[in-house]
User: What shape does this take?
Amino acid sequence: MNQPVNAVPLETQVPSVPPSSKRHNIKTAGLVLATAALLAVLWMPAAPGLPAAGQVMLAVLAFAVIVWMTEALDYAVSAVVVGALMIFLLAAVPDAAKPASGDMGTGAALGLALSGFSNSAVALVAAACFIAAAMTATGLDRRIALLVLTKVDARTNHIVIGAMVVGFLLSFIVPSTTARVACLVPIMMGFILAFKVDKRSRFAGLLVIAAAQTASVWNIGIKTAAAQNLVAIGFIEKQFQATITWMEWFIAGAPFSALMSVAVYFIMTRMMKPEMKEIEGGQATIRKQLDAIGKTTAREWKLLVIVLVLLGFWATEKVLHDFDTSSTTIAAIALMLLPRLGVMDWKESQQGFPWGTVVLFAVGISVGSALLRTNAAGWLASLIVQNLGLQHASAFVILMLLSLFLIVIHLGFASATALASTMIPIIMSVLLAVQTPGINLIGMTMLLQFVVSFGFILPVNAPQNMIAYGTGTFDARDFIRTGFVITLVATALLVVFALTYWPWMGYMTKTV
Assistant: This one.
């Protein structure tokens, strides 16, 4: 009998980082600070043009941002707490749309707090989690990774390219950054140990960091690669009654991601130059790992066919058919769960299923929707537009200033999904408030969402970074110094694309 496809030797598994008293103190301080910010905003004098419900949502926003930045609460727990705060605080103030009708009450406030759960993007995120679970259950992701690596020779630079190619390919079929890196890192660790390479060598650190950064880079180019993209799509659909197809997103973002992948390779191999040029027996070691998982099973073939057909539907949306991404993905999940035809049963799909991520995602959309509905986002946007002088600024200046703002504020967030949930509604309100002729509201929102994925600098900026850091193959300063250079290059590339490709394609302004 073959061993389980995802069985990884204990020594190659990602070690957990034990909680420290320092971390506990930060969490406690974060919770105290978040509560103080909540009360301070609630009790501040009423501001002109800001409804009482809008002031409540700004208070909830302040609480949520601090809790998410400090990780004072588990993300799933924070989502439930934020939802409860919305219900009971909004219930005590009038609806912003009907200020003379008395207090909103818990019924109406509950509807607003749960509004995110009815967004089609939430169904897509949940479905993406099922696909990731199916990949884990069948081991297809691991097999693809090993197959790609068997095609690479034993030169260390080529091994790094192989790892990055795996990350790129998995971005199409595993719609979860964390799942992709969680699949790839144990393979890399097994690789390192099998080659008898020092775990603390530059080569080991190079391999693991490159894998994590590649995952982040392709979050930009592929709409379904990360949850934060689906947050933005959800808001775009709600605010503008329009959507961005998978192929439209790919055309806009993939060239940027491709050039960034090349940049990541050169930055990483120059800044963390491996100690050796070649590892003897490299291909043989990978082939041995591939042989150990046995022949491709019927479940793997079925999953591969379903995922490739689904990818085809995503790529041809609005070209060959009118089925949206969420609908086709849900249909694929139904096929995956059917007896005999499918690849897993319900119990198997629930092993490690991240329901907390789905709840956080939905509540994040609820917060964003409430910020828009109560005019809190519009009020904040007016302040930003006036103070930054964006009223009549060009699309290029608006894109650059808001991008720099997002890059800086991302340093405090450990979740791009949380960042998108809080910032995209405000970004959209800013774009609505400016008077730049012909500005493309949907295109600019998409481009700024690309910047939300710029979590390259700190290990704590993204779950995939923390998975990589948990291997113990590199120090935080290695990630920071290489990540800082990657961010500088990404920003420079942003300028180039904002002056050339994106305006040519009409993503920044429309002809009037």
Observations:
- The first strand starts at residue 94 and ends at 95.
- Residues 392 and 435 are 5 Å apart (CA to CA).
- The mean pLDDT is 87.
- The chain is about 70% helix and 0% strand.
